[in-house]
Amino acid sequence: MNDLSCVGVTKKFGEFTAVRNVSLEVPPGSFFSILGPSGCGKTTLMRMIAGFETPSAGDIRIKGESVINLAPNKRNVKMVFQHLALFPMMNVGENIAYGLRCQGEQKSEIPEKVRKVLDRVGLPGVEDKRIEQLSGGQKQRIAIARCMVLQPDVLLLDEPLGALDLKLREHMKIELKQLQERFETTFLYITHDQSEALVMSDQVAVMNAGGFEQIGSPRALYDDPVSGFVAGFVGDANVLPGTIDEVRGGEARVILDGGGAVLARLADDSNTGDRVEIFVRPEALRIGGDNGSGSLSGKVDSLLFNGAASRILVRLDTGQLVEVADGDQASEVSAHDAVTVSWQPDRARVFVRRPGA
Amino acid sequence: MSRDAGRLSLILLFAPFALWIGLLIILPQIGIGYISLREKVGINEYEFGFKNYADFAQAAVYRNTLFRTAWISILVTMLALVLGFPISYYIAKIARERSRAALFLMCLIPLWVSDLVRAYGWIVLLRETGVVSTALVSMGVINEPIEMLYNDVTVIIGLVYTVILFMIVPLVSTMQGMDDSLLEAGFNLGGSRLTVFRRIVVPYAMPGIVAGCIIVFMITAGSYLTPVLLGGKNSSWFTEQIYNQFITRYNWEAGATFGVLLLLFTSLVVWLGLRLTGQSLATTVAKDT
Question: Localized where (chain B) (predicted)?
Answer without folding.
Answer: Cell membrane
